[in-house]
Write a structure and sequence with these properties.
This protein is mainly α. The protein is elongated and about 65 Å long.
Length: about 120
Amino acid sequence: MKRLYVAIAFLLVCIGLCTYEQILIEEVYKTSTNLIDIAIDYADDEKYQDAQSVCAVLKKYWDKKYPYITSMAEHGTADDAGVLIDTLEDTAENDTDSLHSQLVEAKARVKLVRDTAKISFGNIF
């Protein structure tokens, strides 16, 4: 009977961790894409200083969540997104012409992180 209780306890822990992972990844996705959308709007209005400050906030947020993301999502996609996010602030300061395209690519990379960590039939099998 003790084995059954231990198995149920392990199962509950696994379900809890999976739920936490999905909530965290979705929260990181929503916050990151929201910040990227704000930076895109600033870049489109040619307010590059504001876009640079939003990119700095995004970088700080991503760096704060990065250890959790890499423990739950595929490392390669998380690293690619992180490298691109790290360069956005410098791009907003120096190369304003390519800022919009890099912001769109960063948004796609963050979405890819979410898609690879999402519970789906394709990701499981």
